[in-house]
Design goal:
The chain is α/β, with parallel strands linked by helices. The chain has a single domain, classed as Alpha/Beta hydrolase fold, catalytic domain (Rossmann fold), CATH 3.40.50. Helix content is about 40%, strand content about 20%. Strands 1-2-4-3-5-6-7-8 form an 8-stranded mixed sheet, sandwiched between helices. Helix 2 (about 55-60) links the parallel strand 3 and strand 4 (about 65-70). Helix 6 packs across helix 7 (about 180-190). The protein is globular and about 45 Å long.
């Protein structure tokens, strides 16, 4: 079984912090640090950059490649306000400016997909390509929203290796894919002083009133100019494949790939397959 840092130790990576519009932001990168074009991986609700440690180096063979902790998440700064999509998009733009990225191959998983879709809508000049990986923003199922809130908040409010494992297992089609070091990494994040309050701010999008003023629509998605790859899975716990098809039907230059034996983290669960299909898409549009 592959673990986080042994995977990264195979290459040259840079882990550090950037001032993204006044928000101290943790990120990791590999590849040419001077390139103004980069693949940027954006994680989901309650996540952190380690979600992409199995993807960083394979992509860095071809591109400057970056993963970051979004505002309120991981070890990035946590301002005391609810985090709605406009706040995440501003943070992503500020981050790109801070690290000199002018052309982003923006990849988002779950909440990250929602963020990068809105990023592509609002900032077509910054978006070279778009990848939506089991993306949020179109699905408003109250049962799923409650599940996300309950399992995530429990992992913070009652933080233990067991509650953190339960949160991570929800992401995987095979629970054995949750590694001990991934649990330890997330447990350390979730037990930071004040993180419960930060998680309340993160989970504001599970409130229906707040969610509905942030949702993506077919009309807004139709304005996306970037070539788009939609990645869905056969066991996604948040939405069926038909939701992925809604993205494809709405976005003009888009197509979908459905990965099998995966739930909500295909980039981790089937990393080799994911890397191959994502790099093929990028090569076609790079």
């Amino acid at each position: 079984m592959t673990h986080i840092w042994p995977e990264l130790a195979k290459g040259v990576v840079r882990l550090g912090y950037a001032d993204a519009g006044g928000v101290r932001t943790r990120y990791i990168e590999a590849g040419d640090p001077d390139s103004d074009e980069a693949v940027i991986f954006v994680h989901g609700t309650g996540g952190h950059l380690e979600a992409f440690t199995r993807n960083l180096l394979p992509h860095a063979e071809h591109y400057r490649t970056i993963a970051l902790d979004m505002i309120g998440h991981g070890y990035t700064e946590k301002p005391d306000h609810d985090y709605e999509i406009k706040h995440y998009v501003k943070h992503l733009v500020d981050f790109c400016n801070a690290v000199g990225v002018k052309h982003a191959h923006a990849h988002g998983e779950s909440l990250g997909g929602w963020i990068v879709a809105q990023f592509a809508i609002d900032h077509p000049d910054l978006t070279a390509t778009l990848t939506l990986n089991t993306a949020g923003g179109l699905n408003t199922d109250p049962k799923v929203m409650k599940k996300v809130y309950d399992v995530t908040m429990k992992a913070v409010a009652e933080a233990s290796p067991e509650t953190v494992r339960a949160r991570l297992e929800w992401l995987m089609n095979d629970p054995a894919r949750v590694t001990d070091d991934l649990i330890e990494m997330r447990y350390g994040i979730y037990t930071q002083p004040g993180f419960k309050k930060a998680m309340e701010h993160i989970l504001c999008l599970q409130d229906m009133d707040i969610r509905m003023r942030n949702v993506l629509t077919e009309e807004t998605l139709s304005s996306i100019q970037a070539p788009t790859l939609v990645i869905w899975t056969d066991h996604d716990p948040t939405a069926p494949v038909q939701t992925g098809q809604r993205f494809v039907d709405a976005i003009p230059d888009s197509r979908m790939v459905v990965m099998s034996d995966c739930a909500h983290w295909p980039q981790w669960e089937k990393a080799d397959e994911f890397n191959a299909l994502h790099l093929k898409f990028l090569a076609e549009h790079g």
